[in-house]
Amino acid sequence: MFNFDAEASHEHIIVNQVPKLAYSEKKDFDAWRKELREKFVELLGINKIRENDCPLNVIVEYREKKEGYELIRLVVETEKDVFIPCYLLIPDGNKEKYPLAITLQGHKHGGMYNSIGIVKDDDDREYQPRGSFALQAVKEGFAALCVEMRGMGELESVSESRNKGFCCRFASVMAISLGRSIIGERVWDVSKAIDAMEKFPQVDLSTIVITGNSGGGTASFYAGAYDERITLTAPSCAFCSYSASILHWYHCFCNVIPEAPRYFDMGDLAGLIAPRKLTIIAGALDGTFPYQGVLDNYPIVERIYERVGAKGNAELVTTPKDHWWCEDIVWPSIQRGLKK
Amino acid sequence: MIKINSDLCHDILIKNASLTLEFDKNKDFFSWRKELKEKFTELLGINRIRENDCPLEVKIESEEIVKKDQFVDCDYKRIRFIMTTERNMQVPCYLLIPIGDKKKYPLAITLQGHNKGGMANSVFYHKDEKGNDVFQRGAHGLQAINEGYAGLCIEMRGMGELEPSTEPRMWGDMCKFTAFSAMALGRTLVGERVWDISKGIDAMKHFPEVDTSTILCTGGSGGGTATFYASAFDERITLSVPVVAFCPYKDSILDVNHCICNLIPNVCDYFEMKDIAGLIAPRKLMIINGEKDVAFPIEPAKRGFSEMQEIYDKIGAKDKVRMVITPMHHYWCNDIVWNSIREFSKE
């Protein structure tokens, strides 16, 4: 009897295809980057999202004095009928303005409330304090912006029947049916949230860091590629070749960008970030975004940064852990990256 | 505080979807159908699959005679074969051919939905607690023999023997990982299934007792979905009977949680499910739905069906499309399905 490999046809294609917009030293860099950007924006569905754009609408719901910072709850209307809740934390201190750190959660139940240290159950308790990304950012001297990711936290579906799949799966299905992607929607929201920061004079938009873990790291990386105002992109446990990660193991459906691997791999997208700073944090024992896949793609990043004469602006930082946010490694790496 | 409704934007966009290839009785039917077929083929990713095409290879693994019994009315041949439907893709199938007076038997392609075991359910009896054979309602291939067909059971990608074989991929529950990787490659899993079904029909030339001038395609749930799309793609299918699978997208797969294998990227820009009837007409199409089905709700399904009737009416084939409603929920009603097929086939 024949021994089946149900995945053989897909694997064969994945292993043998050369992405059409793979980086090459032989290509004219600026022409390549222009083409890459157009395809990236198209495949993420951002052109479709743009059709539903609307004037920026920022509603401040409340402000609370906390120990060491002010907590501002705001809602940003990022497109017609889409209201994205956010938290902005402004440190108490003598400075007039604080650089901005956008911190994004991954697939952790509760979404962004984890970033401000809220605990509602044992699972949340176990996740703290390492999950309180925004509080960490404040201690590091940043104004911290938490943007709820579509399909997660407060943006999980309102209907129980839609939530039967893993948190953001139904929203991903809807997005893709509409020619979008949920990653594209998250990137769009992050960009609009940066626009919203114009309303907060204590936020210094000349320095913007974006970071997050896992799904938050993925969104960070793609947002860093899309929005050129982001000075330093620091995805944690998210960067990896597609073939070693999302096309090798089952991942949340929110990672899918239809046809993306046909055009580029993750390393190639560094061409949209360079020469801006890029600090990739990866776990040596990460099984979800395997370290070997990181090592396979990181050389592309190095080559791109060398090409633009910004070799020192990209760094790969390895933690000894698995799929884990290591705040004692992430934040010093970010600070080091900013000083370069 | 603002009341956040995370679904609102998508719901509104879907409700107002442009559907640029929606059926319009004022347009020329044949030029509309040509454009629809091109877009349908593109969105299902079949153009991408075609890039990986290869000559059809059919390998017979086993052939045995099975004697009639309490459940099956006649002796039959049970042939297991493997077909290579594209490079590096082998799809297992069973072909069940009645042994009787006829030289040739019309073909019934029977497809399983999201049932553990996949096509084995179509071919082999289940067992009760005492180990006795049970003629389960999912034994579509065997039911087809009793109806006088040669039954072709094709394993659906992502299910049964074609479920992912390695553990981290299996976390995705049956076909989810396969659907994910198909989409990443610019294909769809439903498109791959349609491709395989079409190749399954090609494979029948190796079996002279199969009459491919009459081809029924049927299945329940995921099998019904594949039936519907396969019938739209392959014009050799003469009677299409999707069971508990038809319903407007906005009331089914885009309203409640379904497997992602149902997903067609960007479909909202172009067509609704009922428009696909334009690719089946004037061939026979019988939709069977459950009155209490929550996965494919009946009221929107009825509305979709009446729109399908307009499509068939446009080309003078209104009698070739039919809807049958069972009193059940998301359920293959054996008697109703086969009685309906028998009746409709005669007309």
Question: Can you give a write-up of this model?
Answer:
The complex is a heterodimer of chains A (340) and B (347). Chain A has 340 residues and is an alpha/beta fold. Chain A has a single domain (30-339), classed as Alpha/Beta hydrolase fold, catalytic domain (Rossmann fold, 3-Layer(aba) Sandwich), CATH 3.40.50.1820. Helices cover 34% and strands 21% of the residues of chain A. Chain A is built from twelve helices and nine strands. Chain A has a nine-stranded mixed sheet, with helices on both faces. The longest helix of chain A is centred in the last third of the chain and has 17 residues, at 291-307. Chain A is globular and about 65 Å long. The mean pLDDT of chain A is 95. With 347 residues, chain B is α/β, with parallel strands linked by helices. Chain B has one domain (19-346): Rossmann fold, CATH 3.40.50.1820. In chain B, 33% of the residues lie in helices and 22% in strands. Chain B has twelve helices and eleven strands. Chain B has helices spanning 8-15, 29-43, 46-50, 120-123, 140-146, 167-170, 176-184, 189-203, 222-233, 277-280, 298-314, 334-346; strands at residues 57-66, 76-86, 89-98, 105-111, 126-127, 133-134, 150-154, 210-220, 239-243, 284-290, 321-326. A nine-stranded mixed sheet of chain B has the order 1-2-3-7-4-8-9-10-11, sandwiched between helices. A two-stranded antiparallel ribbon of chain B has the order 5-6. In chain B, α8 crosses α9 (222-233). The longest helix of chain B is centred in the C-terminal third of the chain and has 17 residues, at 298-314. The interface between A and B is large, with 63 and 60 residues.
Notable features of this structure?
heterodimer, A: 340 residues, alpha/beta, Rossmann fold, nine-stranded mixed β-sheet, 12 helices, B: 347 residues, two-stranded antiparallel ribbon, globular
Quick structural summary:
The complex is a heterodimer of chains A (340) and B (347). In chain A, 34% of the residues lie in helices and 21% in strands.
